[in-house]
Amino acid sequence: MTASRTARERVRAELIREITDIARRQLATDGAGGLSLRAVAREMGMVSSAIYRYFPSRDDLLTTLIIDGYNAIGEAVERAEAACPRDDFAGRWLTACHALRDWAVAHPHEYALLYGSPVPGYHAPQDTIAARVRDVTVLGGIISDAWRAGAMRAPAIEPPAELEGEAAGVREHVPGVPDGVVWQAVAAWTALYGWLSFEVFGQFNGTIEDRRAAFDHSMRLTAATMGLAQ
Amino acid sequence: MTASRTARERVRAELIREITDIARRQLATDGAGGLSLRAVAREMGMVSSAIYRYFPSRDDLLTTLIIDGYNAIGEAVERAEAACPRDDFAGRWLTACHALRDWAVAHPHEYALLYGSPVPGYHAPQDTIAARVRDVTVLGGIISDAWRAGAMRAPAIEPPAELEGEAAGVREHVPGVPDGVVWQAVAAWTALYGWLSFEVFGQFNGTIEDRRAAFDHSMRLTAATMGLAQ
DNA sequence: CATTCGTCAAGAGCGGTGCTCTCGTTTCTT
DNA sequence: AAGAAACGAGAGCACCGCTCTTGACGAATG
User: Fold this and answer.
1) What does the alpha-carbon distance between residue A185 and residue A226 come to, in Å, rounded to a whole number?
2) Are residues B116 and B38 in the same domain?
């Protein structure tokens, strides 16, 4: 409350920021497995135990990096999509896809931390879920808008009875559409991230070279499947 | 060549097999990050340095586990698909998809090792590529067969000029089809693995519960997109 | 002003890891 | 039988996450 307390808090916040910055740099170069608290401390001129004043464990440091990553990816796609004409649904979809891919290709290790194999003993705390849905909210919003504008084709097949009610958890991100469209959106979502994971994790190495063009075409195929109008 | 030499070689082969078995069990329970050469040695009653007589490094042990994994997944999908009527293309597609998913759900850590974030010492040797394409050969074969039987719809959009020749690396797995169909197959392939990765890596936790049914519907959507006939 | 009290960096240490090297012993080859 | 190759054991190196204790500093309180 007082100025002195705020001063101490400020230097603490600054140190936390510095730790996460260095950690993020190490993550970018060495990957999540290579992130070492001792190396971070060394780079800061501190002793390793001092880090534990600011992060109770390595997993907690990873958690803040994960949240930051989700926010970065969410902000990238939000910003890119917001610049599109609202009624160009295919354009909004493609722009969002490319924003996502650009970020993923530029930050492969961070992408792997977010969407790759979960780290061994790591359980995502609740704090992450708010940040992790920003991209799917954007993607779902495009499909929702397109459907409600009548600028989208009805899905080729309807979901079976056993999926009754299963769409509830997803619908909040793609509101105002029938179940079939929700599942269509899920399919598009998984196709998008399936490509990104394949590309970032190197599954295309040696087989597909112009990955940006191939990705663009693949996402156009997905848009065409949904009948997204321009 | 002689019997005595074969005897020594045989015990060596047996030890290698035992090491990989224990390692695979540890991989299944603790994940790739938790796989420890020392723990394997401990469980075998050996000292850790003795392991290095059989595997020059931890990465080499992981590599054989990766190859085994690709072969296991390839064999599972090959066997399941081979049991389908040859002219039921949608059935073959769905069967292959479910075989893949069943294996992935049953072996999440192994799946993560194959299709998740690459491990730190991550350069996959050439030995893996022969095993890693068995599943895509099956999937590509279905699409190729369907196309040549006239039991498949032409893709909604054609690939752009810049993708000319880019399909070459993929076409060997889906022979005898035009470029547009190759890219359609790639899209289906990425959609399939995108779903599996999302499910295995826990992205559906809390939102989609009946994942088998949802997966089934999603793969039926993909089949419908390709117009696979039954 | 002096004294408590909380925060902090530092250091030592524990148990774990991958990996290397050496040293006898065993086993195969010649 | 002699030499060569393979082998298991052990010690050791450098690293890791994490814990605990110690001493210094600064802010709030008497």
Assistant:
1) 9
2) no
Residue B28 sits at the chain A interface (C-beta within 8 Å): no
Which of B143, B200, B220, B221 to mutate to probe the A interface, most A CBs <10 Å?
B221
Tell me the pLDDT of chain A (230 aa) as tens digits: 334 456 778 889 999 999 999 999 999 999 999 999 999 999 999 999 999 999 999 999 999 999 999 999 999 999 999 999 999 999 999 999 999 999 999 999 999 999 999 876 666 667 788 899 999 999 999 999 999 999 999 999 999 999 999 999 999 999 999 999 999 999 999 999 999 999 999 999 989 999 999 999 999 999 999 999 77
- B108 lies within 8 A of chain A by CB: no
Contacts of B191 in chain A (CB under 8 A): 187, 190-191, 194
Same domain, A25 and A99: no
- DSSP sequence for B48-115: HHHHTTT-SSHHHHHHHHHHHHHHHHHHHHHHHHHTS-TT-HHHHHHHHHHHHHHHHHH-HHHHHHHH
Contacts of B153 (CB under 8 A, 6+ apart): B226, B227
Are the C-beta atoms of residues A189 and A136 closer than 8 Å to each other?
yes
CATH (domain of A25): 1.10.10
* Statement to judge: residues B199 and B213 lie in one domain: yes
ipTM above threshold 0.90: yes
Between CA A186 and CA A180 the distance in angstroms is 10
Q: The domain containing residue A189 runs over which residues? A: 58-226
Q: A47: which nucleotide lies closest, measuring CA to C1'?
A: C10
